[in-house]
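ERR on first pass: missing label on line 2. Operator R.T. fixed the label and resubmitted. Corrected input:
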Amino acid sequence: MQRLAPALRQDNVPLDLISLIKTVLAATKEISFRVSQAHLGGLMGSTLDENIQGEVQKQLDVVANQLIKDVLLESGFVKAISSEEEDTSVPGDENGHFIVSFDPLDGSSNIDINSLIGTIFSIHEAPKDMAADDPDIFKQAGNKQVCAGYVLYGPSTMLVMTTGSGTHFYVLDRTHGGYLLVERNVQIPEETQEFAINMSNQRFWQAPMQDYIADLLKGDQGPRGKNFNMRWIAAMVGDVHRVLTRGGIFTYPADNRNAEKPYKLRLMYEANPMSFLIEQAGGLSMTSEGRIMDIEPTSIHQRVEVILGSKKEVEACLGYYK
Ligand code: FDP
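pass 2 clean. output:
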């Protein structure tokens, strides 16, 4: 099996980006170990703090954030970082070539139940004419990402990553401590009979999503003429990993639970990197109005509607919004 660096060189990834990717992944190996230790490491449960988005921070969230932040800011490759767990962007090296956005531990509610969680990251080139402490440095569309990926801390620790030459799967080999390539150019089947949505929010969705899901539930008796199965891991990394592995549609649609917060998932460190991975695997990643990666961001913690997965199923869903 190919090791990470040769696999990246085969895709003509520049050496400084390879070095940055290795830096991010060094932190994920440490997080993988800490996650596997769970109670033994004394890191279970919540801290007394909330992040800027009003969510209770888990101790592992805070530790994972600190690990990634420290390695990135010490590396010299990075001009600035932004994280789900940081209020604002954090300046790094003025000469750094890259900026990195990350969600250190996605799926926090799964930490306490020993279920799937992961780290998501998104890398852009740093604009040369902007200062490291200017938060506007992050206002770049997802279509300008040079690398995106996640590390899934499951029964095995898997890295799923793209640098724009396909989406590849790697597994952390604990015997030598490196990520090994296990599947190159993953392709999402165009059609599916599996959907992922938090059904408990059904009454809050907009009419088109209500109608679409209602038709899926009618199965072979309804207009779709086939039965659908449902899955919900409650961690975007887990649900997207299933979609990349065997197809499906995953959505966190707009809802009217809170007029000021119609969307749940974050653009910069959830939706954009996942969109890059999904599109590179032949899938679609959209809002009901257009391509997620074409959105020009207005703020670091911006939220967005997400409808992604198997191409034909995403198109079928979007058909209800026309
Ligand atoms: P979490 O808040 O636990 O970090 O990041 C948001 C997210 O998880 C996604 O990973 C996940 O898909 C979704 O929220 C789960 O939402 P529900 O709480 O509605 O199930």
